[in-house]
Amino acid sequence: MAALSSAMRGSVKPKADFNVKEDAMALSKAIKGLGTDVKTLIQVLTHRSSDQRQLICKAYQEATGKMLVKDLKGETSGNFTDLLVALVTPTAVYHCQQVMKALKGVGTENSVLIEIFASTSNKQIKELSDAYSKETQRTLTEDLKKEISGDFASAILILAEGKRDESTNVDAAKAKEDAKILYNAGEKKLGTDESKFIDILCHRSIPQLRQTLVEYNTISGRSLQESIEREMSGSLELLLVAIVKCVQSVPAYLAERLHKSMKGVGTDEGTLNRIMVSRSEIDMLDIRSEFKKLYNYSLHSAIQSDTQGDYEKALINLCGGDGA
After folding, report:
1. Looking at the whole model, is its pTM more than 0.85?
2. pLDDT tens across 17-27, in order?
3. Is 133's pLDDT higher than 50?
4. In the 8-state DSSP scheme, what is residue 233?
5. For residue 123, which phi and psi values (nearest 5 degrees)?
6. Mind listing the pLDDT tens digit for each residue in 262-303?
7. Most Cβ neighbours (<10 Å): which of 203, 251, 254, 255?
């Protein structure tokens, strides 16, 4: 979804002189010795790409007859365990597990669904959907329909199909037309036609929507985000605002999510882990930059202030580790 999806903007890159057997044996030694060598666990797992970590998992099982994920769960604890498990889980499966967790239990965690479906690309959503079917023997949309409802469900279900237009061409006339439709469906009328907002914001390409935001501002005199916040409420408002923010900048949106996860009393480790792991190879350097711009202190220092011990050390490595 982001304009820059290159791994060049990630803080974690594939290790150049990668030796899978060496890494697998180093992890085995770290786990089965007297007391777990967490320094080695952190060093290996936070400095390899997701693909390399999957190769390590396979080599580890071949060498020891055990699953690395089970050994990590047995030898570590708490938030540190959750982070390490996330690191050795394939990205699509991890996202799938996050959605499954959000859907089960009393009340659906809409904020997790909003973050994932507003900030991920068609390709990532397709991979998530495939992983979901494999894990549950049910379709993702089938389960979403059972757990969410109303206009919020309509919007999430469109996004979950992963069929957003991916054209890079911008039709200026269409952007003006869509801006007028949105203005007439919201600010200009008594009551709001949410379906128009859902249709345009969930189907149009990102470059097209960027131009639509500009045209809307010209017509309305206020931003589309402001209009959505004035005209709507609840989960639909939060989702559409998240989409608008991601159209402008996915890294800025995720920087805001990270800030919120560490702000105030207590830490939302689920959000912190999810973003730090899933974006470490995509745009973590941009997220760091946006975080600094938005809050006048570094993501590095926020992590240091809000976490501790081995968990903090692993997160710092995923952040890039240089304090910028």
Report:
1. yes
2. 999 999 999 99
3. yes
4. -
5. -60, -45
6. 997 788 999 999 999 999 999 999 999 999 999 999 999 999
7. 254
Name residue, tokens 């540190």: 80
The pLDDT, as a whole number, for residue 4 is: 38
* 55, two tokens: 């190769």
Helix (H/G/I), strand (E/B), else coil: 14? coil
**Domains of the chain, start order:** 20-76 (1.10.220.10), 91-161 (1.10.220.10), 172-248 (1.10.220.10), 250-319 (1.10.220.10)
**Cα separation values, 229 from 239, 244, 322, Å:** 11, 11, 38
Q: Report residue 139 as tokens.
A: 């379709």
Residue with tokens 């935001």: 213
Of 47, 72, 67, residue with least CA distance to 57? 67
Q: According to the model, what pLDDT value does residue 282 have?
A: 95
Query: Rounded distance, CA 113 to CA 246, Å?
Result: 14
Q: Which two tokens stand for residue 232?
A: 């709507």
Residue 280 dihedral angles phi and psi, to the nearest 5°: -65, -25
User: What is the model's pLDDT at position 6?
Assistant: 44
